[in-house]
Design a protein that fits this description.
Elements: E1 4-12, H1 16-34, E2 37-42, H2 47-53, H3 59-67, E3 70-75, H4 91-101, E4 106-112, H5 125-128, E5 132-138, E6 148-154, E7 164-169, H6 175-190, E8 195-200, H7 206-222, E9 227-232, H8 233-242, E10 249-252, H9 254-268, E11 275-279, E12 284-288, H10 305-317, H11 322-337, H12 358-368
Parallel strand pairs: 1-2, 1-3, 3-12, 5-10, 8-9, 8-10
Antiparallel strand pairs: 4-5, 4-11, 6-7, 11-12
Helix pairs in contact: 1-10, 1-12, 6-7, 8-9, 10-11, 11-12
The structure holds nicotinamide-adenine-dinucleotide.
């Protein structure tokens, strides 16, 4: 009997259902090739879940996610559900809620330059040579989850010495939180190029000084074969533009990682090409880095490749189907090398007959997989 992998699909909103269809098509082709079965259970998340159930994360979705071996999320949100009314449900609550419920503490974002797309970046091609990094962002601690608050009528806090407001957010970490994210980074480096940059602000922040100590202790105990370098976050922001190829794995605190991963993503110049994985101790979640692109939803022109690259990460991290993941990566690269483009990654050198829509791009990848 063939192995069965259960995948919870969360197509969400906007272009979500269109790119999900391509992921299913590609997974079915891979399943046939590898002699394994992918079983899909679709559930509601985000705006569509609000429309149908009144909440962005219905209980049935949580159950489907917990029952699956991996979760594949497309994108959620859109202007239809935008609201400033705190009483109304918002699509993002679904995303934050599911991350929390699955205990996803590590967010992995690969940033790899596809040679065929070098023209899409705003940086010079020579600055981009060899860019292939993995950003490992801590996702459930740090500045976004520490104590925060706001006080009113605080003496001297207002203009000209009058009473005014005071607000605060706290960057807080516990040793075990730093150790487990560092472990994720070291393990990833071992199967990549063996180098970790640990990024902090240890010259100013106490939480960073503890971060550094914990990372170094774990390194000495278990990962001495991996090269470990410390870097201050302001320097990293600069180095990402100056010489991005120096980075293999970058591990950092929640907010630093939020900012640096967005900065790094722009090295490739194309949102439609960036995948991500969020890992915890149980079921992991995979999703493209882009949003629901409401401006192009329903037109059949969305780029499905970030979604397919998220599938590649799922094959690797959740199912350990490494050769299938390699084949999918090669198929995507092959399609790009042959000049095929969706509209968002096309440039003046793209032949009009090679500008294709969502489904055609999925078909091209399937063809390269021998489907
Ligand atoms: P976006 O990523 O949806 O779109 C930004 C621009 O990139 C748009 O012009 C869009 O057409 C284009 N784009 C994005 N993905 C593309 C793809 N696969 N193929 C072709 N073009 C693509 O960001 P936004 O416009 O700021 O947000 C739109 C909605 O998505 C908002 O409601 C936002 O809250 C939500 N959002 C969701 C997620 C998520 O689900 N994880 C992430 C970011 C934004």
């Amino acid at each position: 009997m063939s192995t069965t992998y259960r995948i919870c699909l969360l197509p969400g909103d906007g272009i979500g259902p269109e790119i999900t269809a391509e992921a299913v098509k590609v997974l079915n082709a891979i399943g046939e090739r590898e002699g394994v079965t992918f079983e899909f259970a679709e559930a509601l998340l985000g705006g569509i879940a609000i429309d149908e159930t009144g909440t962005a994360l219905p209980e049935s979705t949580l159950e489907a996610a917990h029952a699956a071996d991996a979760v594949l999320l497309a994108a959620i949100g859109g202007p239809r559900w935008d609201t400033t009314d705190p009483e109304k449900p918002r699509p993002e609550q679904g995303l934050l809620g599911i991350r929390k419920a699955l205990g996803l503490y590590a967010n992995l974002r690969p940033v790899k330059l596809f040679p065929a797309l070098v023209g899409a970046s705003t940086l010079k091609p020579e600055a981009l040579e060899g860019v292939d990094m993995l950003i490992v962002r801590e996702l459930t601690g740090g500045l976004y989850f520490g104590e925060s608050g706001r006080e009113y009528d605080v003496a001297g806090a207002g203009r000209d010495g009058a009473a005014g407001q005071r607000a605060y957010d706290t960057m807080e970490y516990r040793e075990f939180e730093v150790e487990r994210i560092a472990r994720t980074a070291f393990e990833a480096a071992r199967v990549r190029r063996g180098r970790v940059h640990s990024v902090d602000k240890a010259n100013v922040l106490e939480s960073s000084r503890m971060w550094r100590e914990v990372v170094h202790a774990l390194h000495a105990e278990e990962f001495a074969d991996v090269e470990l370098l410390d870097q201050l976050v302001d320097n990293t922001a600069m180095q990402l533009i100056r010489w991005p190829a120096q980075f293999d794995v970058v591990v950092t605190e929640n907010m630093f990682g939020d900012i640096l991963s967005d900065e790094a993503s722009m090295l490739t110049g194309s949102l439609g090409m960036l995948a991500s994985a969020s890992l915890g101790d149980g079921t992991a979640l995979y999703e493209p880095s882009h949003g629901s692109a409401p401006d192009i939803a329903g037109q059949g022109i969305a780029n499905p490749l970030a979604m397919l690259l998220s599938v590649e990460m799922m094959l690797r991290y959740s199912f350990e189907l490494h050769s299938a993941a390699d084949e999918l990566a090669a198929a995507i690269e092959g399609v790009l090398d042959e000049g095929w483009r969706t509209r968002d990654i096309a440039d003046e050198s793209t032949l009009p007959q090679k500008t294709v829509g969502t489904a055609a791009m999925g078909d091209l990848v399937v063809e390269r997989l021998g489907g």
